[in-house]
Amino acid sequence: MAKMGNWRDNKDVEVELDGIGGVNILVKADVHRSGINFPCYAFENQAETEGFAKMAKRAGYDVIGLPNYIVWHYDTQEKGNK
After folding, report:
1. CB count, 10 Å around CB of 10?
2. CA angle, corner 1, sides to 34 and 73, nearest 5?
3. Is the pTM of this model over 0.85?
């Protein structure tokens, strides 16, 4: 998903995901309240953030990405820093 979006396009576009990374995650509190966590053990052959997505999907939650949003994890020339 990292290279599929365009920040100039519609920000409301959603893409269904199988797994997630840990840079920027927004989670509704009810997901955690239902017992979904970031497993430190293998869950469906995944752990931590990827396991979290698998666990949430199995519990019936949607795992959605927003490909047209930009999250800066480090400074780049594109961001304007030289």
Report:
1. 7
2. 85
3. no
